[in-house]
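Input record (one chain):
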Amino acid sequence: MDLTIRPRRLRKGEILRKMVRETRMDPSSLIYPMFVREGEGIAEEIPTMPGQYRYSVDRMGEKLDRLKEAGVSSVILFGIPGYKDETGSGAWAEDGIVQKALRRMKKDFPQMYAITDVCMCEYTSHGHCGVLCGHEVDNDKTLELLSKTALSHVQAGADMVAPSDMMDGRVRAIRETLDQAGFQMTPILSYAVKYASGFYGPFRDAAGSAPAFGDRKGYQMDYHNSREGIKEALLDVEEGADLVMVKPAMTYLDLVAKVKEAVKVPVAAYSVSGEYAMIKAGAALGYIEEDKMICETAVSAYRAGCDLYLTYYAEEIAGFMKEGRIG
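The corresponding structure, as predicted from the sequence alone:
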């Protein structure tokens, strides 16, 4: 057959396939979500997330060592406090769990880049992401608490803060607070496009952050909406976000691509707990090959346009990159 154009020419042999690969990945773009809790000598497996653990501060180094060896240099910390109250005051306490973890991490692993999740849901007795007025979250009153929390994290050693609450105006409030305190160079990674998703269940189990009543649809986004996601991302950049995130990743890759086109800052995608649990469960049942699914879902996020990838499989993905299986 007389064919001038033969796409298969560029698929002949592993060296050529890698040479012309359109999507490039590197371990430096991976961020590992880490749960830290009060107590000592604790590394407890999370039932709904097999292979993932809640660590006490004195044992978090075990995982950080493995991440460092794999080439993963960034983590995002989620705190599980020893007490909760109506306002979530443990979130900004000087002796709060994240603050203690940051100080320990910076002492023992100064080369690791520490990002902190800034939200109230793990710390409030009602499990919602801010101050309540009746059964509704009071947006503007919550901004002050989020700003106090972000500042306390940076003072304890955080390199970057990541507000995940989805309150209107929180990026501006945090930016102004950090700037006034002399932390003009601390970047903000905004959970800009965060949907009210069914994929968060295992995380809420891990962090003990399920709402005591109702749901979070009044502040997290309706998953039917796409243009709204672009609006949220652009607003957060205007308010001072240095990076923006789309969450979840797997079922929102269209948003990753659209946000990438719309903004001029780095875009992150968060492969959330439900995505992790689905792969783990399918592999445990023998229905799928775990390694292949890890690689394919990760590449799909980068192919869609993400620059940073938050994933519980960060250590494994970094290994696959070193092996040349992906990247």
